[in-house]
Design goal:
This protein has about 70 residues and is mostly helical. The protein has one domain. The chain is built from 2 helices and no strands. The chain is elongated. The protein starts with 7 loop residues before the first helix and ends with a helix.
Length: about 70
């Protein structure tokens, strides 16, 4: 018996769920790296945490845009 090929719907589901996992991972990295930088620089407010979250979010939105255009 031959295994069935994945459908386009399944492939899209896996691709976009992978993007969600990447987004969560990027946010975790941004938070921990930002906290580390804030402690190293001696800031009492989370300046680097916010800056890195905004930077990573923008980067992710660009990546998502490219993926959506590619799959159009």
């Amino acid at each position: 018996m031959e295994p069935s090929k994945p459908t386009k719907k399944t492939i899209n589901y896996l691709q976009y769920s992978g993007l969600g996992i990447q987004f969560a991972g990027m946010m975790v990295i941004a938070i921990f790296a930002g906290r580390w930088l804030d402690e190293k620089m001696g800031f009492s407010k989370p300046i680097f945490v916010l800056a890195l979250i905004i930077l990573f979010f923008g980067t992710f939105m660009y990546k998502l845009y490219i993926e959506l255009i590619k799959n159009k």
